[in-house]
Structures are given as structure tokens and as C-alpha cells.
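Hey, quick one: can you model this chain's 3D structure?
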Amino acid sequence: MIRNMLLFLMLFALSCGEDRPAPNTPAPNLPYTVEESADGVTCTFPDYHIALQYGEPFGIVSLRLKGQPWDFVHPQLPAGDWEWFWFQEEGRTDTAKVKLLQPRWDAPQIETSPEEVVLRFRRAEVLRPGITLRVEYHLRAAEPALVAEYSIDNGSSLTLKNPYVMVGFPGFTDHAWINTVANPRSLRQPLPPYTNFLDEAKAKGLAEYPLLRDDTALAEGRQLKGMVGISVLGTTYLLEATHLPTPGLRQIFSAHVNKPGYLTSHLYVSMADLAPGASRSLAVQYELIRL
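Sure thing. Here's the predicted structure for all 291 residues.
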């Protein structure tokens, strides 16, 4: 029901462009290709293309369906990213925080099978000894979909009070082409006379302004969902994000925010305290849709 409503809401807007070339290095015995470089991994599946970078910025730097004229992702900023992580230590009032877009992560462990590609990233000793952050991307081969899972492993002797994360939902997208954003409650398009959010953002001249926000999902017992869309010559391309059920959350909301340089769509999550030796994860599923 939610999917149908979102798809109905997203059938709008105009844009046009040219396709970008995709890598085509053969991969024996697999229905897709995987290419590694000094700072990233590119996968080309039968129905979609994705590139992940692990150094400044960290995250998905290209994501599009086969034949899609323009990329969903902002050229300098990633989708599926992990932007902020912070917590308070027991007995202290200050907050330990780190922004995770810029630091270079280690190259991932890569697992391939006919069904999927799994990229496992790990960053150790984050803010305090013993705290490890992990990000896993499960890229499906048979359909244009993936899951990003973000994990905190507290191997320290500290209790992490009120841990907070900000992760992509889908993240930063290229608002030069995006002409619709939506959640299960509402839809937002550029205000006339503008046909994309980039032109509207520049015209407003504000540092940032909200487009949509959804902060009642947990109280209402429903899943958070969000979409961004590109309409080109009668075809609409959607990127749908869904927060998968996750225990140990105190508060969660999603927001689409427009800025002169980019469009940001993220999850903002406050978690229950994380005891020594404990772990907690947050997962987001992405699906690319052509209408």
C-alpha cells in the first residue's frame, strides 16, 4: 500500500540528459563485473551500475539504472553514506563526535557470488580505543537493489550514552536532476517556475531549508520510507530507501533538506545506551525503480 502510494506520488516532473558510460570488464562465471581501483569499487549488474568510494568521500558515488540518463548521486558527495557518529561518556557532559565522510576507510573485503556482491568496510579505534564501526553493502545481482548496514561494536570499557548516527536515506543526491522527493505522507516538487531543486535552492539564497520531514514512524508502528525521483522524457526513475526494523532505537526521523550546493536526504537516529561488549546495527534497503 505504501509502495503504491509513493509510486503514484512520484509520477511527475521534467528533465533530460545523456547516458554515462559504464565499465564492462568481464568477470568469469558471474552475471556482473567488479572493478577495483586505488580508492573504490565499481560494479555493473545487468540492470544497474554502482560505484563505492572509501576515501574522501566515503560512500556511493554513482548509482543509476541501465540506460538512466543522469545519476542519482551528487558528483562530490555520496549516497548510502555514514555522515555523523557521536556519543557521551558516562560521568561526562561533553560529546565525542566524528564526521565519517572525509576520513579514508580501509579497502573492503569483497565477497562475490552469483546472487550478490558484499563489500565489508571496517574502521577501528574510532574516538576511543576498542570502538569499531562497520559498514556492509549487499548488492543484489538479479534486481536493482541493495542493503547498507551500519554497525557499532563497543569493545571498550565505556558505556556509550545516547549514541547518535546520521546515515544516508538515500544520502546526498544531485538536485540538478532531482525533481521530486517524497515520503509516505507527502510529496514535494520544485516550486514554479523552477523545474529542479538546484535552481530553486539558488533562487532562495538560503544556507538550507527543509523540503520534507517524517518523525512519527516509530510512534505509529510503521516503517520509514523516502524517495527521490528524476523524470526524463516521459520516464521516471526512482530511488526508494526503506529503514529495516532495528531494535534499540530511542528516536528516528528522516528529512529531505535543500542547500545551494546539494540535496541531502538522511536518517537521524538516537539509540539506547551501548554497554561494553555490546553491538548495535542500523540497516537501510535501497531499490531503483523505472516507471
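One thing worth noting: The chain has one domain: 2-290.
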